[in-house]
Amino acid sequence: MKRNLTRCRTICLAIVALILAPLACVAQTPVEPGIPILAYHRFDPSTTGPTTVRTPVLERQLDWLETHQYQVVPLSQVVDALRGGGRDMLRADTGHAVAITVDDGHVSVYTQLYPIILRRNVPVTLFIYPSAISNASYALTWEQLAEMVKSGLVEVQSHTFWHPDFRKERARRTSDDYRAFVNSQLVRSRSTLERRLGARVDMLAWPFGIIDADLQSAAERAGYRAAFAYEGGCAVPGSPPYALPRIPVSNQAGAAFGALLAPASARKPPP
Ligand SMILES: [Zn+2]
Predict the structure, then answer these.
(1) CA of residue 39 to ligand 1 center, whole Å
(2) How many A from CA of 34 to the centre of ligand 1?
(3) What's the gap in Å between 177 CA and the centre of ligand 1?
(4) In the chain, domain spans
(5) Among 69, 186, 236, 265, which has the highest number of CB atoms less than 10 A from its own CB?
(6) CATH superfamily of 32-265
(7) CA 82, CA 88: separation in Å to the nearest integer?
């Protein structure tokens, strides 16, 4: 009887090993090390717009990330991983990572988004142009920004000083004047944010997603370590450091939202 039990257990273990073997192979399959960096603007409980995400939809998007084992990480960690350049490091540390960024400093970041990320403990990076803060009627105040930064979940980075259209500015200025203007937009934004919020600012999102080689060099000279586009899919180690891709998000939910992140989530499920 005892011998029969032992034999049964041996057979059972062999069957389990056979079942698990293909899973182990799948687990060792190289994973595309892209990291989605999501880009948002505004939030509203009921109204949608091209750059306004309804808060119930945002909640569904965050649910989707959680269900699919994505971990929302601070943007600075993504940049660290990308600059490390190692595909292995990306796979080991941030293979399932996603970052959330929000441009422009609309007041709904405080009234709508902030309570949600506090409840869910989700880190977010805000790209801010300081000329609007405590000034434009639609914008956040310095007090709101300071409160959010204090929470430890919100990182504030630069979106230039007053959100210019660099293409237009280039067309209407002399080349020397344009160069000085670009430098001023990059440096003044950074120094103002650092002075007002006491936090390090070394990342930049390009206004209107306008990027060219001169602007990328200017960002590097101004002391930024990374700058972000407003399109382009997942960021990978070979992505240009001053034109890192992001994924604009609107009101996609469920599979449509998942499709936005597809390059990084195209991991084959076990057979
Ligand atoms: Zn913007």
Answers:
(1) 10
(2) 24
(3) 23
(4) 1-30, 32-265
(5) 186
(6) Glycoside hydrolase/deacetylase (3.20.20.370)
(7) 11
